Fold:
Amino acid sequence: MIIKYIPLITLILFCLIATTCLRQPDAHLFGKTWLHANEEDTDDLKIYRPNTYPFPPSRGRTGFGLDADGTFRLLAIAPTDGLEEHTGKWEMVNQNLMRITFAENEAEDFQLELISVTADLLKVKFLPAAK
Amino acid sequence: MPYWLVKSEPEAYSWGDLVKDGRTSWTGVRNYQARNNLQAMKKEDLVLFYHSVSEKAIVGLASVETEAYPDKTSDDPRWLTVDLVPVRDFKNIVSLDMIKKDNRLENIALLKQSRLSVMPLRPEEFEVILGLGN
Structure:
């Protein structure tokens, strides 16, 4: 009896696995702090490099970090000019779009569109939070 | 002519970096009072360059080359920057300790508002520091 459902079950499992895999962001994203290479920005893309990259001297280099457990660390410039960290969460909306959320008053929610990522180069677009 | 003092951590952007670059955009200010001071700067105003945190000393004299414009390191147009160019090194750096011990500088904003990164100076304060530095 169950044999005739095997193709259907297989198809459902395949779809579930495919969906899960598609929503996994590139492993290069994790375990590092990405700093804004504003010198390399284009009109519509923001460029980030790992904090080990030999950046030119600059005041005001913001950034962020992502952990595989869903933690997002936003590095913003504090009123005293140093960096201050705001911790939030990330989750994939689709293959290229990440939703970033923070506790109330911690920072504003936003969405991050991942254009491309390699070990030392990340291209993104910042989008407003979906309503 | 108004006089100013700006602070920078030398590990992030030093006086030596400014001398090497010949000009820099004073980006990264995210404090409203400091932003307002940037906005008040006029071309050719003189600016003392202070190394904060690790050195705590005034090390050079710069001037305003370009008046305030939006800071491209922020997407928020409220934050501003100016362009600075180096004028000359201080022969003798003027340490924070020297400033604290000089009665003529007891009211300087560097001591009264120690966390502010862009601040105005009175002409007499500026002259005292210039004298100490050269």
Notes: The mean pLDDT of chain B is 95. Residues 19 and 85 of chain B are 8 Å apart (CA to CA). Chain B is about 30% helix and 35% strand.
